[in-house]
């Protein structure tokens, strides 16, 4: 039997990730599981020719980190309600790799994430992050279709 006691829900603050977080909270409550709410900051580092001096890039990156932490906490506060309070995690890197690394480090049993694709669970349009996590995760991944997707159409 599948043991679910640690759930990871990566979010990008979209409606799709809010729906996924609702499902993750419900599952965490039902299984009395620890819930991790993760956001990944992806920095695109410009070449040195575009940075006037090293301090400006560091200040910019720290500002982005501070804003991302605030948005993650605001997201948790506004979407948690009476559910299981999550442990908020802010990571840096490319989203798929950071999600998979976090899942491994936190020893999660389930990843719950939203789909951003144009046709819900169509593998071609899931979105590159979701698709890469699905292919490489060592635990089950529950993908929540975006609002308005008719899953019945996808099964036909």
Summarize the helix and strand pattern as letters.
Answer: EHEHEHEHEH
Using DSSP, what is the number of strands? 5
- Runs in which pLDDT lies below 50 for 5 or more consecutive residues are 118-125, 152-156
**Main sheet: strand order:** 3-2-1-4-5
Strand content: 15-25%
The CATH topology, please? Answer: Rossmann fold
Mean pLDDT across the residues is 85
Look at the structure and give the CATH class.
Alpha Beta
How would you classify the helix and strand content by structural class? alpha/beta
Total tally of structural domains:
1
Helix count from the secondary structure assignment? 5
Distance between the ends: 30 Å
Radius of gyration: 17 Å
Main sheet summary: 5 strands, parallel
Task: Jot down its keywords.
44% helix, 156 residues, Rossmann fold, alpha/beta, five-stranded parallel sheet, disordered C terminus
Summarize the structure in words.
This protein has 156 residues and is of the alpha/beta class. It has one domain (6-155): HUPs (Rossmann fold, 3-Layer(aba) Sandwich). Helix content is 44%, strand content 18%. The protein contains five helices and five strands. It has helices at residues 15-31, 54-80, 95-105, 128-136, 151-155, and strands spanning 6-10, 34-41, 87-92, 110-114, 141-144. A five-stranded parallel sheet has the order 3-2-1-4-5, sandwiched between helices. Strand 1 (6-10), helix 1 (15-31) and strand 2 form a beta-alpha-beta unit. The chain starts with 5 loop residues before the first strand and ends with a helix. 28% of the residues are buried.
């Amino acid at each position: 039997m599948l043991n679910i006691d640690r759930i990871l829900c990566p979010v990008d603050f979209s409606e799709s990730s809010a729906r996924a977080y609702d499902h993750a909270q419900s599952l965490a409550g039902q299984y009395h599981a620890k819930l991790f709410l993760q956001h990944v900051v992806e920095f695109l580092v410009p070449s040195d020719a575009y940075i006037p001096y090293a301090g400006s890039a560091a200040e910019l990156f720290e500002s982005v980190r501070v804003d991302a932490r605030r948005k993650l906490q605001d997201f948790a506060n506004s979407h948690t309600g009476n559910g299981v309070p999550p442990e908020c995690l802010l990571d840096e890197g490319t989203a798929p790799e950071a999600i998979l690394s976090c899942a491994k480090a936190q020893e999660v049993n389930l990843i719950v994430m939203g789909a951003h694709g144009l046709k819900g669970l169509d593998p071609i349009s899931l979105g590159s992050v979701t698709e890469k996590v699905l292919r490489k995760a060592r635990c089950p991944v529950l993908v929540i279709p975006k609002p308005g997707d008719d899953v019945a159409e996808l099964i036909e």
